[in-house]
């Protein structure tokens, strides 16, 4: 099948080939998966012509090249491909010709070769080679485990690890975070839906309000930018009285644990405010957690405030390796980040934690290079006047930067 696909010149040829061979493939061969072109299957089911929208294909290809560069720790190449993918993502029209692409920002050089190949041939050989590369596939798999970064994945690859069972048999020393990541990897690899994120939000609210009834909670990250799915759910927590926030995360963690709803957590204490003008480090008090989110039909969800932990439920939730299959389980492991900020830093933390990561990176670069202002999720430091610029809202931060305000939905770079 790979041979035939590689021989094709255009999307329509591939489609014709698949239609002709429908039912003749061995059942284990999932042709669209092999091609990894989601627009292709979408087009087939919607009846739209196949090659109307190469934009997603182009973006996906550039993102694969970016991730491959990231796995090789090549920051310059990673940034170059990410910027080009981001440009294509934001394009309000269909890219149909190389001519149209040549004036787009960040899309020259290597990126232009990729764009040209895809526009003309429907696929890029370099990208196809990367997708089938053992190192790339293993790095995708290993860095997909919660708690595993590029360095660790590289080390494991060099030690001969190629799949999850190798990790168990080769007796790798795993951190508590990685053990939890591995234990719940099936759940964590599934995307979190908006409906699930909202239920996590309700759980977080119910938990925190037990201790501080008027606590202020905002869902940040991708969901604040209007995304329908995410890999986790991020929250920002604040209160006008900073003392009210003291010990709140410990209390919340303690309560969730007694309910059997916490599968993993790591508390990071707030570090003293970073006065370094150029620092982009985030030192907010944070709880990185994996919660057992009760399913929507579970009684846990409907009455979480008053429901007492029934021993059978607690057992099921506290011991995720029980023989219950995913389908019969009444919970799903979901990654949750809780970030606590004093009110004075809230607007900066909100901007920082709304993302996207690439948007934040570019905003900080613009701010420093063009305005001599150092931006992080604690504040904005004027390097020339040697002072911090206070802001109560995100709009005020954009004003400080001399930029038109962008709502979260326009920050999906
Ligand atoms: N962020 C940050 N410091 C961190 C981690 C994240 O400032 N240590 C910012 C960057 C984006 C935002 O917080 C949310 O991070 P993610 O959850 O990783 O990204 P996301 O956009 O929410 O993506 P997803 O929808 O996949 O969760
Ligand atoms: Mg997120």
Automatic annotation (TrEMBL):
GO terms for biological process: double-strand break repair via nonhomologous end joining. It catalyses: DNA(n) + a 2'-deoxyribonucleoside 5'-triphosphate = DNA(n+1) + diphosphate. CDD domains: NT_POLXc. It is found in: Nucleus. Its EC number is 2.7.7.7. Mg(2+) binds at residues 232, 234, 337. One of its GO terms (cellular component) is nucleus. It comes from the Eukaryota. The keyword Transmembrane does not apply. GO terms for molecular function: DNA binding; DNA-directed DNA polymerase activity; metal ion binding. Gap-filling polymerase involved in repair of DNA double-strand breaks by non-homologous end joining (NHEJ). Belongs to the DNA polymerase type-X family. This is DNA-directed DNA/RNA polymerase mu. It comes from Leptobrachium leishanense. The lineage of its organism: Eukaryota, Metazoa, Chordata, Craniata, Vertebrata.
